[in-house]
Write a structure and sequence with these properties.
This protein is α+β, with helices and mostly antiparallel strands. The two termini are about 35 Å apart.
Length: about 625
């Protein structure tokens, strides 16, 4: 965490400004024609100029996703703290007790690492009301980073609204409707979208007769019909499972209810043969005008290697696959769909964002079903029908995951936003809604991380006074995924220093050709563009590199990216706080280890070895 360094830097800036003001006052005493009135105006302008936005990050919550929340908060803290933003961190435990926590606690591996120490090490609040009163006096803007219950269901938003505390994101009533999957599905149907046929089960016991009728209406075999059983109000990663037939569906629905995960359970038809996608929506409108722009969506491809049992194949894109290293998932940005389908996904997600009254940003998940797969609908005129197939929106994530390699940052980096830039843009946009924060929604004096080229030769030979740093990670060892995480964190943190030109590299895993296993100098190294680093495994990074240089993919990505940037600029150009995109996205470069070492010597680069094995040091 850089919070300590950022705080010291901010204090030094204030000291420097105070010194300048003293000079101005002294000059005013000597040169009387300037007058005391002008001096007071100058002093006020200087203080206004350096006013720091106090942001409160709230993480934790009662759901099983509080570990994801902690990871997201750590990432947000790291990328927004400093300059004109000061961050305070808060934690809500499973019993909805609130605590003020330190940056060091945010950097714990899991919530369990400090849960038991909260009473003695953190500032606790008597009640949520006391907590809200503290927030009203201590922060200018709250950024809720609670996933699932109390974070996305309108709970924390309702508390903040009651005490007139500005916050990032959608309002409480809109959250309440959008978070409940069943209610959201009904509303989407009313708004003209095709939805997945579903049956709601609620109460202490599932209603067998009602579910049996639903199976019959959707032509599902009561003994083996394949369905998805999931909670309606527990996020998109928790309590989702596949069931076969009526009895299995009832059993799994009752398990969710009796275990207290949720009192409302949704049974949906299984979308066999479909492709899952997820899309980030960014609102770039002014004031109360909503102008949602959908970034480049991700296609989520589940992969299975070798012999896999039925249970594993039926596993949904769950928390483990979404947030942890696994070779069972691959991402494609943009999706491998026809361009008309991708544009329809973007149009639909944008329309959904507006129809449901969402604010600032959101992540919307869905499925694309080829033409051969039919989904029943009361009207073929509803949104989602294309010549190529059917688009369905299934999950609305009001507080998208914000871990270092999350979909938010993958998609944002594809169109030119660094981590810091996209997060600060979201916060600045939220400020525009509140009159007392209008000055923060105007010109920002904070200098964002300067644009650094991704073109390898230009970066290496650019004589601009910066020191070159090569960060290399990956390899073949069992710790290669740890290497990726370590190298990514080092690369991201060093990006903050303007006197460094930091270039990430992947030591590619071998392809199984034992003849080259010990010929280290011929091993492959890839120079990576910003967006390609943001993956969960080294295998994903390698696959993304190969895909990024395929001519057809390059042409498609360039076309769609230009269109998204154009859409973004239509809204962002009206905001004086937006200082532009700060990263470029050029194709990766393939090298041998020998060529990479030669390049490092030519650039006089400092090499940071994040490879968890001594393969490089043996060269």
């Amino acid at each position: 965490c850089r919070s300590g360094t950022a705080s010291v830097r901010a204090e030094l800036q204030l000291v420097a400004i105070e010194a300048e003001l003293e000079k101005l006052c002294f000059a005013g005493a000597v040169e009387e024609h300037r007058g005391p009135t002008r001096l007071r105006l100058i002093e006020r302008e200087e203080k206004e100029r350096v006013r720091v936005l106090r942001v409160g990050l709230i993480c934790g919550g009662p759901s099983a996703e509080r570990g994801i929340s902690l990871n997201s908060t750590r990432s947000v803290l790291d990328h927004i703290q400093g300059g004109d933003i000061h961050v305070n961190c808060y934690y809500i435990d499973p019993d909805l007790n609130a605590f003020a926590i330190s940056p060091a606690q945010v950097c714990s591996n899991t919530a369990a690492d400090f849960d038991f120490k909260l009473a003695s090490l953190a500032q606790g609040f008597e009640s949520l009301s006391d907590f809200a009163e503290h927030l009203a006096a201590s922060v200018d803007m709250v950024f809720p980073v609670i996933h699932g219950k109390f974070g996305e269901d309108g709970g924390i938003q309702e508390l903040l609204e009651k005490y007139n505390i500005p916050f990032v994101g959608t309002g409480s009533s809109e959250c309440c409707q959008a978070f409940d999957k069943y209610n959201a599905s009904l509303e989407l149907s009313r708004q003209g979208f095709i939805t997945v046929p579903s049956c709601l089960i609620q109460g202490s016991e599932a209603d067998e007769s009602e579910l049996s009728k639903w199976f019959a209406r959707n032509q599902l075999d009561p003994k083996s019909g394949k369905v998805v059983v999931k909670t309606t109000r527990a996020g998109s990663s928790i309590g989702v499972t596949v069931a076969y037939g009526l009895a299995d569906s009832l059993s799994k629905a009752n398990a969710i209810i009796t275990e207290g995960i949720d009192s409302r359970v949704l049974v949906e038809i299984f979308l066999e043969g479909g492709s899952e996608f997820t899309a980030i929506v960014l609102d770039v409108g002014s004031g109360s005008d909503c102008h949602p722009v959908v970034l480049l969506p991700n296609e989520v491809e589940l992969q299975f290697h070798g012999s896999v049992d039925v249970t594993e194949k039926d596993a949904i894109f769950n928390y483990r696959r979404k947030c942890l290293p696994t070779q069972q998932v691959a991402y494609h940005t943009p999706p491998r769909f026809a361009i008309d389908v991708i544009e329809s996904i973007r149009e639909g997600a944008s329309r959904l964002f507006q129809k449901l009254g969402l604010r600032d940003f959101a992540r919307i998940d869905g499925w694309f079903l080829p033409q051969s797969i039919h989904v029943t609908s009361s009207s073929d005129s509803k949104f989602g029908r294309t010549e190529m197939g059917t688009i369905l929106f299934t999950d609305i994530n009001l507080i998208s995951g914000m871990e270092q390699t999350s979909f938010l940052f993958q998609q944002a980096s594809k169109v030119g936003f660094s981590h810091s830039n996209i997060l600060r843009s979201i916060i600045r946009h939220a400020c525009v809604r509140y009159p007392n924060l209008a000055s923060f929604g105007s010109v920002s004096d904070y200098a964002p991380r300067r644009s650094k080229t991704s073109m390898l030769n230009e970066a290496v030979h650019n004589c601009n006074g910066t020191r070159k740093v090569f960060v290399i990670f990956g390899g073949d060892s069992s710790e290669r995924q740890v290497s990726l995480v370590s190298g990514t964190n080092v690369w991201l943190n060093l990006q903050a220093f303007d006197d460094l030109e930091v270039i990430p590299f992947l030591l590619a895993p071998t392809t199984g050709d034992s003849s080259n296993e010990f010929d280290v100098s011929s091993r492959t190294v890839w120079s990576l563009l910003y967006s390609l680093v943001l993956r969960h495994t080294t295998e994903e990074v390698l696959d993304a590199c190969i895909e990024a240089i395929e001519p057809d993919r390059v042409a498609l990505t360039s076309h769609l990216r230009n269109r998204v940037v154009q859409n973004l600029m239509e809204g962002l150009k009206k905001h004086s706080w937006f200082t532009g995109f700060d990263i470029t996205d050029e194709p990766p470069v393939k090298l041998t280890v020998e060529q990479w070492i030669k390049l490092a010597k030519e650039a006089q680069a400092t090499v940071f070895l994040a490879v968890q094995f001594n393969i490089i040091t043996n060269v």
